[in-house]
């Protein structure tokens, strides 16, 4: 068994709640404004909810072997969904670019992207202290860093859209590449890091 720091459990639960709220808001705004970067960010936020909830459960169980297979299956499924999202976002962004559709920047969209960036940045900074405690916590910190980068890309696309009309689709393409890389990294993590905590290390229980 591994004893996680006291703040690890509430932080995991808060990350799940923040991802749910930010994701729903971003998808709604992105669909309404036909902004691929916005709904792509929203979908990525929602895909962080299941891993955060599973992490919360595993922390409560002391990282015992009982939840190891469940966590591995969840992360493997999320890795596939992230790569599918990357493909869909890339196609939508290319279509928006080639069709000459520009996303009209709005204070609401920029404010949402800024809020997501700050929120995930705060979570990432708070959880960086947990690195090295357990492979599951390390993967969680890496996922939060990816979310910071995705939200920052969406924010940059919205702000640059005030000057150049193709900034939104370009941000969507950059986000698609980051999503694909994150999905591939997450898939490797399920077969390397998590397998390692099922042996005689601190994750035994």
TrEMBL record:
UniProt keyword annotation of Transmembrane present: yes
Membrane topology: Multi-pass membrane protein
Cellular localization per UniProt: Membrane
Superkingdom in the source lineage: Bacteria
Coiled-coil segments on the chain, per record: none
Keywords annotated in UniProt: Membrane, Transmembrane, Transmembrane helix
TM annotation in the entry: 36-56, 77-97, 109-126, 147-168
Protein name: Uncharacterized protein
Organism of provenance: Geothrix rubra
